[in-house]
Amino acid sequence: MAKKVRPITDLPGDLYAKVEKAVAESASHMIFGLQSAGPWWTGHFAQSWVVSSSPVQPTDSSRFKEDRDKQLPSQFNDRPNNNAVDCSPPSGSKARIYGGEGETPMAWLTDQMFYPTQTNKVPGRPEVLTRSLKNPIYIGNKASYAGFAINKPGATMPDTAGNPVTYEQHKKGTKGRKGHTLTSRDQNPNWIKVYLAHDGFVNNDINMGFQSVGFKTK
Question: How far is CA 116 from CA 41, 66, 85, 175, in A?
């Protein structure tokens, strides 16, 4: 039986739907690429990349932070920018955390209680629903410390003494404190700039999305 040929008048609609699907697939590949290039400790930051029709706000705390805050006195929880950070535990046998200005360090909780266990880096491609090309598409990270994790200028997190540090300073160390090994690609604190500027990363992810629905790319 001969295959029914669709009329040429259906072509614009078919092509439009195919491009919508390609954009969704590209977004999924980009999230996989961002997970692969970026930091990974518990996986919370990596798994907080989402696709949205509006700018993504970094408001989600990690479960580790919520669990940790239950163990700490209120004066520590009330400190500004007190969020979980993907970092290596300090070398000492106890974490020394300041409870507030002018107070002595609290060394009565172990490192294990302050730092979550590192998990294996396992990026995954999420299913991204197709959406109209008439609406803007944003890819952003919901983690409350997202600015810190991409080394955004001025974005800081407290170190083990409560001092604000950037992601780059977290690697180098400050005020006599040794640095930490980053989990981003090549231990580069500016990993997201490399991903967005390098044809082999972001452009390749976009191409794979279009190729997956039948488009040919260079």
Answer: 8, 12, 10, 24
Rounded to whole angstroms, the Cα distance separating 14 from 10 reads 6
Both tokens of 68, joined, read 């940790």
49: part of which helix (H) or strand (E)?
A: strand 49-52
Q: What is the pLDDT of residue 1?
A: 59
Of 121, 116, 107, nearest in space to 36 by CA? 121
* Residue whose tokens read 């990270």: 141
Q: Are 122 and 139 in contact (CB under 8 A)?
A: no
For residues 176-188, one letter each, b for 16 or more C-beta atoms within 10 angstroms of the residue's C-beta and e for the rest, the string is: ebeebebbbeeeb
Which amino acid does the sequence have at 140?
Answer: G
Average pLDDT for residues 45-50, to the nearest whole number? 93
pLDDT at 139 (0 to 100): 94
125: tokens are 């491609």
> Which spans in the chain are helix H?
11-37, 63-71, 74-77, 111-114, 146-149, 167-172, 191-197, 204-211
